[in-house]
Amino acid sequence: MSAAGPADRATQRALVERFARERPASLLLDAPGSALLDVASGKALPLDWARIAAVEERLDRRTRRPYLALRRDDGTEVALADAGIAFAPVVAATGPLPGLPDVVTFGDLSAAEGRVAHALDHHPDEPPDRGHVALLLFCLAVVDGARAVGFDVSAEERRLERLLALLEARR
After folding, report:
1. pLDDT tens for residues 103-161?
2. H or E stretch including 35?
3. 25 near 37, Cβ under 8 Å?
4. Within a domain: 1
5. How do beta strands 77-81 and 52-59 pair?
6. Which residues lie closer than 8 Å to 18 by C-beta, 6 or more apart?
7. Is residue 60 located within the same domain as residue 118?
8. Do 80 and 115 have their domain in common?
9. Radius of gyration of the chain measured on its C-alpha atoms
10. Which pLDDT does position 102 carry in this prediction?
11. Does residue 98 lie within any of the structural domains?
12. What CATH number has the domain bearing residue 28?
């Protein structure tokens, strides 16, 4: 695959800038610092424009809403969408997970993490079940996916370690 030339790079940047500008509630672009901000999570994704191989506008098959796919030269891809920055979960540490979507966001992580935390923090007399373990594994796959595309997930790892310790203590 050939690297994008200066004209292509300018076109890619303009497309990303326009897309983010049209979705200020979900995405912000720090052009000078070359980072994308997922507004809902407050997480920044560094952008190395020299490694961006392609930027394509696509339509979500289910919602028919537009999104941008950014593919790096190593094949890693993220999507910029109304829900923020989306990426593939990684199941290397969890093994296959039934029902795992192809693409996730930090919003998905927040929802699943919140359900596990609620069960453990607010229902201390109820033993955790397989559903809680499945949610925690889902969270791990999301965090691993976020790390794989370049997000700093140290805070998320600490929260999941706390939840895992609570689950283990209550089994």
Report:
1. 999 999 999 999 999 998 888 888 888 999 999 999 999 999 999 999 999 999 999 99
2. strand 35-38
3. no
4. no
5. unpaired
6. none
7. no
8. no
9. 18
10. 95
11. no
12. 2.30.29
Asked whether residue 77 falls in the same domain as residue 127, the answer is no
Sign of torsion, CA 54 81 101 58?
negative
Asked if 43 and 37 count as a contact pair (C-beta separation under 8 A), the reply is yes
Q: Residue 116 is part of which domain span?
A: 106-170
- End-of-domain residue from the set 86, 120, 149: 86
Q: Residue 2: its pLDDT value, please?
A: 46
Does some domain include residue 14?
yes
Token pair in block for residue 84: 């923020």
- Per residue in 96-132, is it b (16+ CB within 10 Å) or e — as a string? eeeebeebbbbbbbeebbebbeebbeeeeeeebeeeb
CB 112 within 8 A of CB 42: no
My answer on whether 111 and 152 are in the same domain is yes
Q: Which alpha helices (H) appear in 6-102, and where do they start and end?
A: 6-21
CA distance 75 to 51: 10
State pTM to two decimals: 0.91
**84, β-bridge pairs:** 81
